[in-house]
TrEMBL record:
Residues 14-74 form the HTH tetR-type domain. One of its GO terms (molecular function) is transcription cis-regulatory region binding. Pfam families: TetR_C_24, TetR_N. InterPro entries: Homeodomain-like_sf, HTH-type_TetR-like_transc_reg, HTH_TetR, KstR2_TetR_C, Tet_transcr_reg_TetR-rel_C_sf. It comes from Marinobacter guineae. PANTHER family: HTH-TYPE TRANSCRIPTIONAL REGULATOR PKSA, HTH-TYPE TRANSCRIPTIONAL REGULATOR RUTR. The keyword DNA-binding applies. Keywords: DNA-binding. The lineage of its organism: Bacteria, Pseudomonadati, Pseudomonadota, Gammaproteobacteria, Pseudomonadales. It comes from the Bacteria. Residues 37-56 bind DNA. The keyword DNA-binding applies. This is TetR family transcriptional regulator. PROSITE patterns: HTH_TETR_2.
């Protein structure tokens, strides 16, 4: 007689998977992907290490899942900012500010998503999400050109440059070495940094000195 999985068993598996994902997310949030060891994750989730591999083919697959989950949250926040009121340039500035401020509020997770050395499978996800950000920015730039608040330009190339500029400008401030040395950084310090990043991005985009 063929084995038939019961609803209760399916629910237990789903709950175990959820705990594994949540505990891995916690590990990455606290110490980056490098701190998310399978044995630690299993201990936090209350499962055997073999259980993790029944839900995910490899450690890299698990990390890719966490990367997708964490980055999609950030993409959604940028999308929300771009959907607010105001002209396209104002909305784009708001979205860039949202990106930078959220990164600085959660520096370890942001570092993990933006710059931490990762396995090829996770790096593929990083590239895919950079394209997702660029696509959102591209639409805003095109809207701005149509509205007349942004000069005519190659919207696709400009959006790619925006993603690169804001991500690269945050690498130093977010790096674990830097953040451990500047644990006493104030909100004013972060505000000044964000203002500087946004000023650079918007001046490059609009040609208007801010």
């Amino acid at each position: 007689m063929a084995y038939r999985e019961t609803e209760k068993m399916r629910q237990r598996k789903a709950e175990a998977r959820k705990r594994i994902v949540e505990c891995t997310y916690q590990c990455v949030e606290e110490g980056g992907f490098r701190s998310a060891r399978v044995t630690r994750i299993a201990g936090l989730a209350g499962v055997a290490t073999g259980t993790i591999y029944r839900h995910f083919e490899s450690r890299e697959d698990l990390f890719a899942e966490i990367f997708r989950l964490a980055t999609q949250r950030e993409v959604d926040k940028v999308s929300e900012a771009l959907a607010t009121s105001g002209n396209a340039a104002e909305r784009l500035e708001r979205a860039l500010r949202q990106f930078a401020e959220r990164a600085l509020r959660g520096p370890m997770m942001a570092w993990s998503l933006i710059a931490e050395p990762v396995d090829p499978k996770v790096e593929e996800e990083r590239l895919a999400y950079r394209k997702a950000y660029a696509k959102l920015f591209e639409k805003a730039v095109r809207d701005g050109i149509a509205e007349g608040c942004i000069p005519d330009q190659d919207a696709r190339q400009s959006s790619t440059c925006l993603v690169g500029a804001i991500a690269e400008s945050l690498v130093g401030p977010l790096s674990p070495t830097q953040t451990s040395q500047s644990a006493c950084a104030t909100t004013d310090d972060n505000d000044s940094l964000v203002d500087s990043i946004i000023r650079f991005c918007m001046q490059g985009l609009t040609g208007i000195r801010r």
